[in-house]
Write a structure and sequence with these properties.
phosphoprotein phosphatase activity, HisK_dim/P_sf, 471 residues, 19% strand, 51% helix, EC 2.7.13.3, alpha+beta
Length: 471
């Protein structure tokens, strides 16, 4: 039951309502006593106490054969409360006083006595007047109270008020109960909405969330829940896709590592266990073994490099380089490679860019551009033309483009080209490559503060563009 009380918002709302009602009543009582009470020796009394005390003081008065007598108890009460008394006969002359201040007169007219009924606090006292009558004689008496007490008289139609009094009481109770009912209805509605939000959060974690219409008082909360669900679903989809590609890549890299190891093992066994062979055969076997070892080493180096670039552990040493000359030498080196000696590779640049410089790490940047050129060569037919060009935009920066007129890349594959574990469909028949070349190129370009994009169309060729920012 205790846990239910904590979890159910309605119970807490009801408790809050009761607390507010109690605080309201307490505040009302406090304000009533603050405005309508005065301190007196026996404690806190209503501001009507002086008038009642004055009217009741006559119980301590006695007519002794025409002479007014005041009981000692009455005088003691005056002293106890710090009050003064003045008794006036029918002619308005003072016949008795007790503790009366010196500046008050010894006689009063009828109009002066009547004025005391509405007189305000003055000279440190508020004066109340009453009368004592016995055996045909009447005495008026004044009692001064050291309190600032306001006096007012309200006149009203008693018949109308008495007739409407039940209506007003009914109206007040109706308003109170209507407010309580509205508060409870709002509490139930709020509890329902909070429950919907709570269930929505739980359903998001369980991946069973259904979008909530974004309307009403909590539309922004519903919008946030819907957005969070979309982002989580998208994240889950990316995670699944990444995991799928990772598994495929592990399968591919495992296969690619086994590919060079198989001939290495086979030829090594022939050399170790077979009959003696001549030197020419030994050299032939050794060159095959060396070629496959180099290939396996390249795969491992590519894997190491991509993780070093991702973690920032690879040393980065940029320096100013004459870019046209640098790229031209890179193209010449690739063209002079015996593997690509019969391929069509060209370099283009504007004449006014011969002195163009850029801050790059020569070794890393060579790896990035080289990967793009070699990819264009090995994944296209032998008659494909590859062109490396450089241009400058003084506002955006330097553009380096590697384009070919080869088979192109399918549109659905272009978004995955720079994914670390991705290998395109047009590479299936070529065992070379780890699927890391373009990912490494992208990481290197980003390390230089630039970006790389691809544009391609099946059957028309592909263009990779590197943008190095201005300045």
């Amino acid at each position: 039951m205790k846990d239910r009380w904590k979890l159910n918002p309605f119970f807490r709302l009801f408790a809050l309502f009761l607390l507010l009602v109690i605080l309201f009543i307490a505040a009302g009582i406090g304000l009533f006593y603050f405005f309508f009470s005065i301190p007196e020796p026996e404690g806190l009394s209503l501001a009507t106490w002086p008038n009642r005390f004055t009217d009741n003081f006559s119980i301590w008065m006695e007519n002794d054969r025409g002479t007014l007598q005041i009981e000692e108890m009455g005088l003691e009460r005056l002293d106890e409360y710090g009050l003064w008394l003045q008794v006036i006969d029918e002619s308005g002359q003072e016949v008795f006083s007790h503790n009366k201040p010196e500046d008050f007169p010894a006689s009063y007219t009828a109009s002066e006595l009547l004025a005391f009924s509405t007189s305000a606090y003055a000279d440190g006292y508020t004066i109340f007047v009453s009368s004592f009558e016995k055996t045909g004689q009447t005495w008026n008496y004044l009692i001064g109270f050291p309190y600032a007490i306001g006096k007012s008289v309200l006149y009203y139609n008693g018949e109308t008020v008495s007739r409407l009094s039940p209506v007003f009481r009914l109206l007040i109770f109706s308003v109170f109960f209507a407010g309580a009912a509205l508060f409870l209805i709002y509490g139930f509605w709020l509890t329902r909405q909070m429950g919907k939000i709570t269930r929505g959060i739980g359903n998001i974690s369980l991946r069973t969330y259904q979008p909530i219409p974004e309307k009403g008082l909590f539309n922004s909360v519903y919008a946030a829940l819907n957005k969070m669900d979309r982002e989580i679903r998208h994240s889950d989809q990316l995670m699944e896709e990444t995991e799928r590609v990772r598994r495929e890549w592990i399968t591919n890299i495992t296969h690619d590592l086994k590919t060079p190891l198989s001939p290495v093992k086979g030829y090594a066994e022939l050399l170790a266990d077979g009959p003696a062979v001549d030197n020419q055969t030994v050299q032939e076997y050794g060159s095959i073994i060396l070629k496959n070892v180099d290939y396996a080493e390249k795969l491992m180096n590519d894997l190491k490099l991509t993780y070093q670039l991702e973690s920032g552990a690879f040393p980065f040493h940029p320096q100013q380089v004459r870019l046209v000359r640098y790229l031209k030498e890179l193209v010449i080196d690739i063209a002079n490679d015996p593997i690509f000696s019969n391929r069509d590779i060209e370099f283009e640049s504007e004449n006014n860019l011969s002195e163009l410089t850029a801050a790059i790490d020569p070794d890393l940047f060579r790896r990035a551009v080289g990967n793009l050129v070699i990819n264009a060569l090995i994944h296209n037919s032998s008659n494909t033309k590859v062109i490396v060009s450089v241009s400058e935009d003084k506002w955006k920066g330097i553009y380096i483009t590697v384009r070919d007129n080869g088979v192109g890349i399918k549109e659905e594959e272009q978004a995955e080209l720079f994914t670390r574990y991705y290998r395109g469909t047009n590479t299936k028949e070529k065992s070379e490559g780890s699927g890391l070349g373009l990912a490494i190129a992208k990481q290197i370009v980003i390390l230089h503060g630039g970006d790389i994009v691809v544009k391609s169309k099946s059957g028309e060729g592909t263009a990779f563009s590197i943008l190095l920012p201005a300045n």
